Amino acid sequence: MNYGLRSICFLGSLVVMGATGCDFRAPEFHLNMVQMVSDATPTPVEYQEQIANVLGGMFGDPDEPFALPETGLDIRRLKMAAGPAWTDQKGAAFGLYRQHCSHCHGIDGDGMGPTALFLNPYPRDYRQGVYKFKSTYNPAKPTDEDLHRVLVNGIPGSAMPSFSLLPSAEVEALVEYVKYLSFRGQMETALTNYVYNDLGEEEVTDENGDPVLDDEGEPVTKLIPLDPENDPEQQEVIKELLAEIVDGWNEANEQIIVPAEDAIPTDVSDMKKFAESAAKGRELFYGTRANCMKCHGPTGLGDGQQDDYDIWNKAHLQFLESVAEDPGEGEIAQDRTEVAESLFPVRNAIPRNLRKGIYRGGNRRIDLFWRIYAGIAGSPMPGSGPASPGAQGTLTEEEMWNIVDYVLSLPYENASQPQRALPINTELVN
Amino acid sequence: MITNRKTRSPLVHLWAWLLACATFPLIWWGGLVTTTGAGMAFRDWLTSDGYLMPFYPWLSSTGDKFIEHGHRLLGMIVGLLAIGLVGITWAKESRYWVRIFSLAILVGVIIQGALGGMRVVFDERTLALIHGCTGPLFFAMCVAMVVITSRWWCDVEPLESSPREWKYLRLAALTTILAYMQLIAGAVVRHSPHLVGQSASAVFQAAVYLHVLLAVAIVVHGVLLIWQANRCKQPIGRCWLLGALIGVQIVLGGSTWIVKYGLPRWASRMFGELTFANTADNAFQAVVVTSHVAVGSLILVTSLALALRVARQLRIGVPETVGSSTSRMGVVL
Q1: N or C: which end of chain B has fewer CB within 10 A?
Q2: How far is CA A332 from CA A73, A188, A195, A319, B214, in A?
Q3: Which residues, numbered 259 to 298 in chain B, qualify as contacts with chain A under a Cβ-Cβ cut-off of 8 Å?
Q4: In this entry, which stretches build a coiled coil (chain B) (predicted)?
């Protein structure tokens, strides 16, 4: 393109973008401010900057992501998913996260992208590394396969679409980037806790090692800087914190819930056996051991307990309540109020209406089994199976399969004959 | 009357039709580029992956490259047609202001093309947004050219000015302005989620509320326009066409939201949740979303045509001293 024409166009563009308030700054990751100004881990501004620097060194920025070899993250995939969206001459797509995900999940993966306020439910906040629909035990991380499945299938009944039309390599790149955002978010939490618990103020000493006193005779203090580059001890601690996070993800494959062969009903196409299994499941569903009725209601319409929260909304609610109760003083009060005002309205976790046959985590029998076995991480839905390998669960696997069969039959059951609430359940529901 | 007929050239009118007919696909193809996120399929402009625009092997390309380059080729065709329009208008058209207007159309297409190109060169979403806003404006100019070069424009008898006609004109003009504001709001709704600044959320939320509010205002104006057309004996067919387009647009707008973001919370509570997950970037989504963009432009130009026609009947812009040497703009309007 002609240089003169290009210059004119450039100047014109500057004027237009200036007039529309456009800024040329590259996108940045932001800190989790709820965490930074909460009562649990109040973090001074100096530490906030230092934490951001450490995170920048460990993970790069949205346009130039970086991952330490210890994380095991594939930098090639990260670069494919990060940055602005474009296509190279061979047709390979880049900037996939910005193209497909960030408008809902946000640049930081905080679930607060531009469209998020209008979505039902709010998009997932990746920063805690907690995912609902997975094949692993409740506290465990999801496997890559779990994340891949959610991306390909989407989440029916929510705004999360299926990305089944994307080439597999692109989906894998997105899975890697989602994990990267979780690693980064978890590391931020770990650093915040570390700074709060192990660093803080220390007395300033002179060249003889004596404390320096101020005009009133009190020892002068300063914050111990978070500076792993020059502090080998801090470097070690941070390595350990990162290793702990990475181990959690690496162990996911060992935490997959594999149903015992002998507990799986052998032939679901046998209507008689299925009906028997569903009948047993019905008893459990309305019984006090499984107590599904507490939340899903006496009709399975999801009209039981409605006033609980998932962990993401609960954290925001607690923060909002603490700000309402005591906003603090001066700049802290201003910061806390600003953060509180930036949050979305808190929403209750509404139990699933099981009579519609819409199962967000997938409608295969194994998907429902995993939901009943491990519960739904981050939500009030508890697991009926053991919380970890070798632990004791509330129900046997056979009983859980019975509930699976009953849940699958619920959309076809006559809703006018619901189970009458037992006294104990009535109390819980009310 | 005979004098008026001599001032217009059927060839100019035909060419204006050709330009408008080529611009409409350009508009919806542009919408398709945004819908499919194909805007950055090439990082260069005026070339496409190093090829001069006409020489890129478009028909053997696929996916976003096919979509983006198709848009570029259509833009090029429209640009050539705009150059042709200027030539023919200056050769055949005697009305000075129409000749100037043809030049304005050419300038419009150049600016529009440069905006599109700069969006690519700087990879700047804000420019894509502005490019999306100015596209329908250019389409409106093309349609205005069709109207003002038509035989009807020259032959139509002046209407006796009455408050009803003026009210009809005000309604049509206001509907046009609202339709254009709605297109701007729509462009912000489409592009702002992809902005990376801190204010993107606030911009998107404000644009969504404004978009809904303007939709209500346009529906009300559409109904009023039909009612007023009946009262002042204006041809009702075009108003019904506008009404039908608005109706279709409302359905497409709701569908666009659903195929992109599912049901909002209030709607899920009223009607229940969707039983499926949308598939990102599938053909159905592309058709629905792009149709919403295209019909929006049609609403704009239909209401503009209505406004121009009644303005012509009321002889707005025609000085009382028609033919005076002091008023070149006023001569044989």
Answers
A1: N
A2: 37, 20, 18, 14, 40
A3: 261-265, 268, 272-282
A4: none
- CB contact at 8 A, A174 and A100: yes
**Which residue type, as a one-letter code, is found at position B70?**
G
Q: In 3-state terms, what secondary structure has residue A390? A: coil
* Residues of B whose CB is below 8 A from A349: none
pLDDT cut 90: percent of chain A above it: 70
Closest CA to A27 of A96, A83, A87: A83
Interchain pair B41, A87: CB under 8 A: yes
Determine the average pLDDT of the residues in A38-63: 94
Is there a contact between B117 and A9 if contact means CB atoms under 8 Å apart?
yes
Separation of alpha carbons B304 and B183, rounded Å: 14
Confidence (pLDDT) at B186 = 97
Distances (CA, A) of A169 to A26, A68, A93, B277, B279: 26, 22, 10, 21, 18
Cα–chain-centroid distance for residue A378?
Answer: 8
pLDDT at B330 over 80: no
Rounded Cα–Cα distance for residues A166 and A280 (Å)? 42
Residue B317: which pLDDT band, with cuts at 50, 70 and 90?
confident
DSSP element (H, E) containing A79: helix A75-81
Residues 52-71 in B contacting A (C-alpha not used; CB under 8 Å): 62-65
Give the CA dihedral B9, B14, B16, B20, nearest 10 degrees.
160
Among B126, B85, B123, B120, CA closest to B106: B85
Cβ separation B264–A117 shorter than 8 A: no
Pick left, alpha or beta for residue A389 (phi over 0 → left; psi -120 to 50 → alpha; otherwise beta). Answer: beta
Tell me: pLDDT of A425 over 90: no
| Cβ-Cβ contacts under 8 Å for A158 (sequence gap 6 or more) | A119, A120, A121, A360, B262, B273, B277
Residue with tokens 């998913």: A81
pLDDT at position A209, please?
81
- Closest-CA residue of A relative to B204 is A114
- From chain A, the residues in CB contact with B203 under 8 A are 114
DSSP letter string, B279-310? BTT-HHHHHHHHHHHHHHHHHHHHHHHHHHHH
Architecture category of domain A259-308+348-429 in CATH:
Orthogonal Bundle (1.10)
Q: Is A113 on the interface with B (CB under 8 A)?
A: yes
A306 touches chain B (CB under 8 A): no
Residue ranges of the domains in chain B? 1-157, 159-314
Q: What is the DSSP letter of B156?
A: P
Smallest CA–CA distance from A14 into chain B, residue: B127
Mutate to test the interface with A, among B42, B48, B196, B282 (most CBs of A within 10 A): B196
- Residue A416's pLDDT is what? 62
B254 touches A at CB < 8 Å:
no
Backbone angles phi, psi at B159, to 5 degrees: -85, 150
Domain boundary assignment for chain A: 29-256, 259-308+348-429, 311-342
Residues in chain B: 333
Beta-ladder partners of A201 = A223
ipTM of the complex: 0.89
The vertex-A101 CA angle with A20 and B255, nearest 5°, equals 80
pLDDT of B53-107, one tens digit each?
999 999 999 999 999 999 999 999 999 999 999 999 999 999 999 999 999 999 9
Q: What is the pTM of this model?
A: 0.89
Collect all residues of chain A within an 8 Å Cβ-Cβ radius of residue B69. none
Q: Which pLDDT score is estimated for B166?
A: 92
Q: Which residues of A337-357 are buried (b: 16+ CB within 10 A; e: fewer)?
A: eebbeebbebbebbbbbbbbe
What is the distance between the alpha carbons of residues B29 and B139, in angstroms, rounded to a whole number? 13
